[in-house]
Design brief:
- It is a multi-pass membrane protein.
- The protein is mostly helical.
- The chain has 11 helices and no strands.
- Helix 2 packs antiparallel against helix 3, helix 2 crosses helix 8 and helix 8 runs parallel beside helix 9.
- It is elongated.
Length: 277
């Protein structure tokens, strides 16, 4: 009798790092961390110490704690926007690809209109009109990425809607809704999952850019974009205030991109073979 053992491979590193990042971000409020808003003006720009491993910022706040909560805020906004965009975009794409005709034309023309606007400018316009903050930022970013999910779902449905298993379910008298969301949707989930992971990575960058411009997360709440903006303003006094958030943002994007690549290879063996050649 032989036993099976779990083997660790380098390809799994991004997944483990992302899982660790998500766990720390989700548990940040209950971890024994200092209040990210607690100020100690007497220790402004203090260097690393046993109590403050990354030092303190211009208001004496713990930089490491603020980085953890900034990552938490970025991931919450990114995942919420990606989930909302995925639900709306997938529903539109499946409906358009399965129904065809007028429904397909209206849905895809709407998507073309949204794609006419650059994502950053569209997000800036909406946030400027309705005010900054996560409540505005999440639906705005979701609208920006709805077309991506719609196009992926639409193309995938067109490739499977005439398959034998779909025709078999339809011939059994199943309703259109059941055929679309119980038969077709599970069989096109692979590309949509990859699109979701990619959207999360892009949304993190977009949220940080908007926060850097003052149109995202509002101070004093920690945000990577806000911390980068503050670090740039105090570069002469404390250059590490700029280095730490830039390094955290870069590391998170690299982890997310590596995870997206690995997930794409696992869900699409053809891409893995092509990359291996």
């Amino acid at each position: 009798m032989t036993g099976t053992s779990l083997k660790f491979t380098p390809r799994q590193i991004p997944a483990y790092l992302l899982a660790l990042l998500l766990v720390i971000s989700l548990l940040a409020p209950v971890l024994p961390l200092q209040d990210p808003l607690l100020m100690d003006t007497a220790a402004r720009f203090a260097g690393p110490s046993a109590q403050h491993l990354f030092g303190q910022d211009e208001f004496g706040r713990d930089i490491l704690v603020r980085l953890i909560f900034a990552l938490r805020n970025s991931l919450i906004v990114a995942f919420a926007a990606a989930i909302l965009a995925g639900v709306i975009g997938t529903a539109l794409g499946v409906l358009a690809g399965y129904s065809r005709g007028l429904t397909e034309m209206l849905a895809m023309r709407f998507i073309d209109i949204v794609l006419c606007f650059p994502p950053l400018l569209l997000a800036m316009l909406a946030v400027t009109l309705y005010g900054p903050g996560p409540v505005t930022l999440i639906p705005v970013l979701a609208i920006v990425f709805v077309p991506s999910f719609t196009r992926v779902a639409h193309a995938s449905v067109l490739s499977v809607r005439s398959q034998d298993y779909v025709e078999a379910v339809r011939s059994m008298g199943a309703s259109n809704a059941r055929v679309m969301f119980s038969t077709i949707l599970p069989n096109i989930a692979g590309p949509l999952i990859v699109q979701f992971s990619f959207t999360v990575a892009v949304t993190v960058v977009l949220e940080s850019g908007l926060s850097f411009l003052g149109l995202g997360v509002l101070p004093p709440a920690p945000s990577l974009g806000l911390m980068i903006g503050t670090g740039r303003a105090t570069l002469a006094q404390a250059p590490m205030l700029l280095v730490w958030p830039c390094a955290a943002l870069t590391a998170m994007i690299l982890i997310l991109n590596a995870f997206c690549d690995d997930l794409r290879d696992r869900l699409d063996p053809k891409s893995s073979k092509i990359r291996g050649q």
